[in-house]
Amino acid sequence: MDIEDLQTFVAVADAGGVSAAARRLGVSKSIVSRRLLRIEAELGAQLVARSTRGSALTEAGVTFREHAARASAEIDTARESILPTGDLRGRLRVAMPLTFGPTHFAPVLAQMAGEHPQLQIHTAYSDRFVDLIAEGFDCAIRVGYLQDSNLVARRVGPIYGTLLASPDYIDRHGVPQTPAHIVEHQSLMQGTETWQFLDGDTIVTVQPQGRFKADNATALAAAAVAGLGIAWLPDCITHEYVTSGALVAIMTRYPPPSAGIYVIRPPGQHPARKVRVLTEMLIESFERNPQLWGLRRQGPGVPHAATLFRAAKD
């Protein structure tokens, strides 16, 4: 049985159809259909029921999918084990945030592609939370406070944020003096998130309210500059606005706790070596270029950058 046919069937099963699998694999629908028919003919069983409304796994397909996925993963591991030391091949599908991806993460992927000419790298940039398993990603990079899930996460570095407002907003509305006062102001948010602040060693959680929402930090920064409200934003997005005076840090007695940058992958016994290599390269990028991430603040309660990097590797 051809391993490429096997992997194609797994892609069809996980993507929910031939068209979605073709997009995921980067091949034509006709190629996916031929591979699927070939594996069904070899097995003597229909794995996917096709109709005008779409595709669905048959009972045999559901059973075979689990075995096929395990076999594909084992073959990938075996291939990696016999490659020359440090060499990577195959395809790496990565989901990255649109806010930071093109500016902060894309150079690392470009470096990875240059060092591993047999590796195909396919990247999707979006600030939505993709379903890694259903959409067939090897891993994703996520920024912020990690939510509970069955996914496996590796923290590659810290990221700091600040509560900010424009001088115009401050002149018209004043600023919150404590976290409890935030609900009295227009907040610029990604959705219905909560905000956290440090009151000494205690974390205070508030539920901000506001009429302007966007799933992109750069868009929220522009809204804050326009005076539409207060915003919790990462320092690496806003340092130029702060330097120019377009935005002002507020409520500095209650700083937000540091968030993190994580490499997220589907659950499994061992991460693919290509995911491990990307993770290590991202950690090294933090160590080489801390200023790119706004890791420049020193003061009471703020660990030295070297301490942060050691913690990120644990």
Describe it:
By secondary structure, the chain is α/β, with parallel strands linked by helices. The protein folds into 3 domains: 3-82, Arc Repressor Mutant, subunit A; 90-159 and 259-313, 3-Layer(aba) Sandwich (D-Maltodextrin-Binding Protein, domain 2); 161-249, D-Maltodextrin-Binding Protein, domain 2. The chain has 11 helices and 14 strands. Strands 4-3-5-14-6 form a 5-stranded mixed sheet. It has a 5-stranded mixed sheet with strand order 11-8-12-7-13. Strand 1 and strand 2 form a beta hairpin. Helix 1 crosses helix 4, helix 2 (18-25) packs across helix 3 and helix 5 (101-115) packs across helix 10. The longest helix is centred in the N-terminal third of the chain and has 24 residues, at 59-82. It starts with a helix and ends with a helix.
